[in-house]
Each structure stands twice: as C-alpha cells, then as structure tokens.
Amino acid sequence: MNIYPQEIEDVLLAHPEVLDAAVFGVPNAEMGEEVKAVIQPLDWRRAGDALTERLRAWCETRLAGFKRPRTYDYVEQLPRLDNGKLYKRELRDRYWEGRESKVI
Questions:
Q1: Which of 30, 43, 58, 81 is the most exposed place for a label (fewest CB within 10 A)?
Q2: Is residue 11 part of a domain?
Q3: What is the bridge-based pairing of β-strands 32-41 and 18-28?
C-alpha cells in the first residue's frame, strides 16, 4: 500500500504536544516495512510511554490502521537543512544500517 508520510506528519503536528515530526518506513521482519514516527515534543520532559499512548489514541481517530505509526521515537531536535527542509535520510539511515535494501 502507498503511504504518504506528509499526511501522517500533518496529523501528528496537529497534536498540541508535538513541535515537529518525521515519518518514514523502517525494517519489519514480518511485513518488510512499518511506519515509524520520530517526534520532537514541545516539552522534552514529557517524551516517553505516556506521550506515545496519547499519540496512538490521537492517530486512531484520524488515520486508517495501516497508516498509523507502529513505533515512536523521540529526539530533542529533528535534523533540518539550512533551508529548513527536514533531513529524513539522516534519521532513516539509523534504522536501515546493515541492511541490504533501503527505502530512499
């Protein structure tokens, strides 16, 4: 199925506790890939399991099941280029390291 990360990012960015978000595919042994969300929370101290549960509930009412992130990670700041564009490759490469194929 085609999944458009921008749609998922837009839903996550609408959550009041999310400052920035990146969504991309990561390896999944069973399905090949799964949807991963990397979140820059508005308040870093609130990052963790409780925020993950709130984000899951938020996405459950706004996204189809196959579009919802299966896993969430948190960073203090997402990498951006000088022009402000999100540098997803830097994030994505961490999860695909040591794999023969990558989604680019």
A1: 30
A2: yes
A3: antiparallel
Residue 103 lies in a domain: no
Q: State the Rg of the chain over Cα.
A: 13
* Angstrom distance (rounded) from CA 43 to CA 39: 11
- pTM > 0.85: yes or no: yes
Tokens of 80: 């951006």
- pLDDT for position 67: 96
Q: Is residue 19 part of a domain?
A: yes
- DSSP class of 54: H
Alpha-carbon gap, residue 24 to 103, rounded angstroms: 9
Please provide the size of the chain in residues. 104
CA 104, CA 92: separation in Å to the nearest integer? 9
**pLDDT at residue 104, rounded to an integer:** 41
For residues 20 and 78, the answer to whether their CB atoms sit within 8 Å is yes
Q: Copy the structure tokens of residue 18.
A: 């999310």
